[in-house]
TrEMBL record, chain B:
NCBIfam families: PRK13454.1. This is ATP synthase subunit b. F-type ATPases have 2 components, F(1) - the catalytic core - and F(0) - the membrane proton channel. F(1) has five subunits: alpha(3), beta(3), gamma(1), delta(1), epsilon(1). F(0) has three main subunits: a(1), b(2) and c(10-14). The alpha and beta chains form an alternating ring which encloses part of the gamma chain. F(1) is attached to F(0) by a central stalk formed by the gamma and epsilon chains, while a peripheral stalk is formed by the delta and b chains. The keyword Transmembrane helix applies. Belongs to the ATPase B chain family.
Amino acid sequence: MATEAHGAEHAAETGGLVFHPMDQFIVKPLFGGDTISWYTPTNVTLWMAISILVIVGLLVMGSSRRAIVPTRMQSMAEMTYGFIHKMLEDICGKEGLKFFPYVMTLFMFIVTANFLGLVPMSFTLTSHFAVTVVLALLVFLTVTIVGFVKNGASFLGLFWVSSAPLALRPILAVIELISYFVRPVSHSIRLAGNLMAGHAVMKVFAGFAALTIVSPVSILAITAMYGLELLVAFVQAYVFTILTCVYLKDALHPSH
Amino acid sequence: MATETHDAGQAAADMAHGAAQGGVGMPQLDFSTFPNQVFWLAVTLVVIYLVLSRVALPRIGGILAERTGTITNDLAAAEDLKAKAVEAEEAYNQALADARSEAQRIAAEARAEIQADLDDAIAKADAEIAAKTAESEKAIAEIRAGALESIQTVAKDTTAEIVGALGFQADDAAVAGAIADRMKG
């Protein structure tokens, strides 16, 4: 809202500039109409479908030849597989590998949605809290349920820091408990916030490009932001996944 | 939102949508779209999960395992072949050494045989030479003996004749003794 108001001021000054940095995030029905019920095919549906196609194209089509000497696509599929597999194994150990398809699903979805969001005129799925909150809650619920199923009540030991002095432990327990429940919030807002901010900033710069005097600067700025956003797209997916692994480790080995 | 409605470039549908948002600036906070997004996200995640866990990940895992296996096998095979090559080289060297010693043995044998033959031949030739020499010596001795006798006979005859010519009666025994004396001299 702040950016929009800021843009509006500029529009008022220059008379020609139009800033709608947040319009790119509007959820619209694909086939007209303006009511959105839960099943309406929207641009969300479209880009979710494209994400699925990209993931299938990379991981399924890419590996379909099962070549011992891989093609480029197969190499990429194998590198992605190895990247997440190694991350999960390093953090959670061998028993964490049961969750490999789950973690891989999260990573592939986020990284694909992030990069697809950088295609001009596209829709960024992961810039929406509805999406990231669901993802974060999935992780949170999985970790909590797995923690209690595997460790029973001793999972609560996660909050009882046995290495601290006895007097401090209740206070630490409260802090740990709060931090545990804040996890899904930070987990989801970090991802959506990063994506939304970057895309909005690019739109603001794009709005300035209509002014002849500043347009070279603005185009340079968009280019630079785009590079930065490519980095952010990967780093945020990586961060989300590695945090998922760390939380899963808590569920598997709750002792500090 | 006011600027949005004032904007000439804004499409009518979007304006209607903006109004539907009820003045919320961030589409992210437009809760009316949440069920829709959550539903499609759930569908997407389930599809991705099924595709990954049923098809993609086992396949890629299989490929990676197969490659590791192949590389290990190839390395083992290479090690094998290397050992075989070393073995073959040793066998070759051994064969070479054998052949060389065999050749030396055969050469030595041949040399010994030839030496033996040569010795035989030399011995035979020596014996023959010795026999011939002995024979020749005998012949020479015979000849020499024959010659002496002839000389004595001739000398005796000549002496008798000379003595006769001088008018003396030659005494055979005395002539013979004198000749024998002279012959010794």
